[in-house]
């Protein structure tokens, strides 16, 4: 076999270097001290250099890990399929196809919001079996928040269940998650048949429904009942939790001319001034007693929401130069205009990602002022104008009611906590839905491969006018492109150097004498653990060849271990960095890392037990 020839031609040094790169990538992807994109680029560059100096030669003297092999991930059919499906899903989102379904739930939920929440989460799970779950979660965040308010329940009890429902739905079909497609692609690269569209739907549905019962009945009880940023700011009885805000002293502020007394300003009771920026010069505490506040000073303060609200009410001129909404002609809006506080979240694909507020010109572009930035439930202790925005960031904004309302139509931000009004149905929604259903039908019936149907569907979305080229390009996530390409390159190296076989041998040696179902169960648990500290896509590519090696040595059908990778790699429940939808709900739910650990760990154990009991019986694996 090719694998044995390759393994014998590889040197131990090459294998150990690749294993070290696997371990290093696990650490770097898990810690995220540097961006996933930069880590992926560095990994690809390292593989290119290493196998150029130490080539892995076959019998004909050809380098099996040459540049063409290392870079082949960028042209991988699974990756192209994922990107095409992202474009198709974006067409469904932008034309209102998904929003229309969400609108029906809120419109016909009646007074029983509890039933509407159940239906909403179930619909999210079903939609995620066929659509990229990231836009589905983005659409349903404000819907679930509104329904939670109707039953006087904290949205924080339902944001994590929303993300979990989307992840569970992705376990059931080949296109439910990019992870599933990558496992299938890895099988094909190993010379085996890929996974069929509904091949693991039965076992995936068993796990999804089992998990859904937990998500609906138990997970909300384990989560904190936290109020949103907006409700806390408006509630005079809010908690003493502080956040960082940046305010500019307007020319009509009563605070002009005041001096600090023992380091505090009497005009700002219960507020700590951490920095005063004056003409690009920063003054830090302790402040001199003769220092006077001047118009145009920028104050970086730490305060409770109650203290900040009271300060702005007592001195409206304090924020005059920045807080006033800007009219369409660029003039300051009258102060008599009704001002609202609201939260907006940056979804993946937003054009604002990577830029700071000053570069964006947020105030002039959207007619609203950003009062605070919250990232992963923590306020950032830095000048807001210097902070580069990231996906999942929540901005606390102030503006006129009409300007805040206009944020609903902006695709680069998601307005949170909106009312449950009927959502619009744009003109192209029907043709987008027809294209989407056609892609699913062609792939499910096997008329054409999923790669062909998804690519044609993406082209039809653009040709039909449901999307333009700019919108289609924004649907493509560069993190997925680079991470998948790097993981596939590392997976090839792991297989060709014999590293995958070595790891499989060690795992089998550690479980020597154990029945195949026990080994399968432990393998599932190992992959499920790694997927919470590593990208699920990377886990899928790295562990598939290891699982196939174990299956071959046990004499078990390789697809069984491949499906175990699919199920386990989707168990990204115990960490906010394990899956993108977890990161999306972290801001709106104001969660800490421990909240995901508390709610996600029991779910992983439940799914592990369900898989361990059902899979051996379903696939007839003897003990």
From TrEMBL:
RCK C-terminal domain: residues covered: 232-317, 329-413
Coiled-coil residue spans: none
Entry-linked Pfam families: CitMHS (PF03600), TrkA_C (PF02080)
Broad class of the protein's primary localization: membrane
Localisation: Membrane
Membrane-crossing residue ranges in chain numbering: 13-31, 38-57, 77-101, 113-130, 164-183, 203-223, 427-444, 480-498, 518-548, 560-579, 599-619
Molecular function GO terms recorded: monoatomic cation transmembrane transporter activity
Domain of life: Bacteria
GO terms classed as biological process: potassium ion transport
Protein name: Potassium transporter TrkA
Protein topology in the membrane: Multi-pass membrane protein
Keywords for the protein's UniProt record, in alphabetical order: Membrane, Repeat, Transmembrane, Transmembrane helix, Transport
GO cellular component, one term: plasma membrane
